[in-house]
Structure prediction request, 376 residues.
Amino acid sequence: MIDERIWRVVGDPLVRPTGSGELAGETVAVKDLYAVAGQRIGGGNPAWLDHAVRELAHAWAVERLLADGAAVHGIAQTDEFAYSLAGTNAHHGTPPNPRAPHRISGGSSSGSASAVSMGEASIGLGTDTGGSIRVPASYQGLWGIRTTHGAVPVDGLLPLAPSFDTIGWLTRGPELLAEVGRSLLPPADVTTGEVVVVDGLLGLAAPDVAATIGPLAAGRPRISWPMTELPAMLATMQTLQAYEAWQSHGAWLATRLDTLGADVRQRFERASTITAQQADAARVEVERHRSGMRRHLGERVLLLPSASSVAPPVGKPRVLDAVRQATMQLTCIAGIGGLPAVSVPLTTEDGLPAGACLVGPAGSDHALIALAASLA
Prediction:
């Protein structure tokens, strides 16, 4: 009996390895946005699944993992069309969070994260557009990486917002996180500099999370950050993200918005109102912020919270809205910058999972994983 909050379909395995590499013996929970040959992409929405056709080939990332010896254990649930950070899908429920029972799993890579956290898979293959790897990693005490935008091919991936969509994965330890990186990422060619801190960004986290990150931040150089611009930067990203989400799915959803859960429906309804002119203006601003952010950080690595709080309790929708907006002020930095980000698991004084995030230079994914492991 499978837990349908975590899995849409499982096998023993669902797909066998096609090669014998460094990932031999590892099992993958594939987020239900990736093409798996012979299976349909469900996107977290039953109506979409009903209309989907079986895929003829694997997504690029799935093919690479199989070639390096990993097996696909199953297709894991996701928030609808990956347009959420909570994991509270209206159709199949909230995947369990064994590290913080009765608290949400974090999304949208919710099923993949819970499969790894529960020990039902060793690798959770997910995506990160606005924090969908970093947030569940933080909430469930996992290691996770959002890769440099464009570093890993997205062939065979159901899009949300291509300007921000990235491949990512979750594991229980840094060694396997790095091993998957050697399978999926280009060879290492960018190094990292010193780790720096922005006190204003630490201040966006709840006191218990900020206190947990405190020892890692102690003694690090402090740098300035345009904190007053951060809400506007996030709004600009959300405008472009929403426009692209509607371009990706609006033609199908226009007469099917009633198939969506209330929270995701509200986001798509807003997305449908954004004009091409507004999107063009947002795109210009995103590029301006991206260039400025990369110049400001240079080779340095920014340390900040992975999420603004520990995982909120299940069944508190108003709390989720507030937490989402606060968390996205932190996660949008890597999203706008197109930068890699690694979430390192920590534990608060109350014993709840939290995450410290390292955001590095574009292309420094391998070095960033190694740095994160050394800090842990």
Notes: The first helix runs from residue 46 to 51. The first strand starts at residue 7 and ends at 15. Residues 7-184 form a domain with the Amidase signature (AS) enzymes fold (CATH 3.90.1300.10). Residues 178 and 370 are 8 Å apart (CA to CA).
